[in-house]
Amino acid sequence: MPVEHYENFPVASFLLPKALRSPIEAIYRFARAADDIADEGETSPEERLAGLARFQTELDLLQRGETSDHPVFQQLAPVIARYELPIALFRDLLDAFAQDIRKKRYANYAELLDYCRRSANPVGRLVLDLLGEDNDVWLKESDAICSALQLINFWQDVALDWQKGRVYLPRDEMERFGVLEADIAAGRQNAAWRDLMRFQVERARALMVSGAPLARRLPGRLGWEIRFTVQGGLRILEKIAEADYDVCSRRPVLKGRDWLIIAVRAIAGKST
Question: 209 CB contacts (<8 Å, ≥6 apart)?
């Protein structure tokens, strides 16, 4: 699966029920295509925003029941129609991608969670919609998992995001721990940096664990898919800690041994 924002989301895994693979692929393709527009390096911000606006126009067509000639929306249209998926969730994703173009810093954790609400949580909610589930408890746990996955991507990609001019670390928390943007630029791994990143990792872990019960509520193979997803996210957080929170000189990624650890923990039902 490509890197960036959706790297930690399950897409068409062999664990997914066969009936859900195609609809989830259509949702992912939309999100991936829109995210690519927002992150096209050589294109001006105005051109990228215009590209996202065209996606909004395509959603308008689908909402009116009209036909699109865009391949992403041709694949997505029957999925939205069959499962009566809320167009608003797709608009939330586009809004978040547009925010990535306009907004490069976050004042506090509340701002960051609001971004996650639109950039990540719609994916989980759409999957629950495919199941015909809108239980408040399930939605809350899904949001926790998706937001945690988004945060994990941020903490994996501090150095990569810096190269794009973005800092997702909340400004007030950087100030509290005594970390400057110059430390990110220099890849400075001092005690203040480790304390800040330890705080971010522990908070993301707690958020993920709070959503983990969803895996036991979901039926069959989808439940197993979420178990593996939760354990994958938790394992990445472990690898960040094992690297002494040095995410600037080496990006934590999952390798062969990690997948064995994830499988054992998923089967054992481990949630911490």
Answer: 234, 271, 272
Entry pTM: 0.91
Q: Using CA atoms, how far apart are residues 82 and 20, in angstroms rounded to an integer?
A: 12
| Contacts by 221-224, CB closer than 8 A, 24 or more apart | 221/15, 221/16, 221/17, 222/15, 222/16, 222/17, 222/20, 222/127, 222/131, 224/15, 224/266
- Give the C-alpha separation, 72 to 186, whole Å: 40
* Cβ-proximal residues to 49 (8 Å cutoff; 6+ apart), any chain: 98, 101, 102
Q: How many whole angstroms separate alpha carbon 41 and alpha carbon 182? A: 23
Cβ-proximal residues to 248 (8 Å cutoff; 6+ apart), any chain: 158, 159, 184, 187, 189
Residue 14 structure tokens: 């062999």
Cα separation of 49 and 59, whole Å?
15
Structure confidence by residue, pLDDT tens digits, 116-171: 999 999 999 999 999 988 799 999 999 999 999 999 999 999 999 999 999 999 99
DSSP structural state of residue 211 = H
User: Distance between CA 72 and CA 77 in Å, rounded?
Assistant: 9
Tell me if 233 sits within 8 A of 272, measured CB to CB. Answer: no
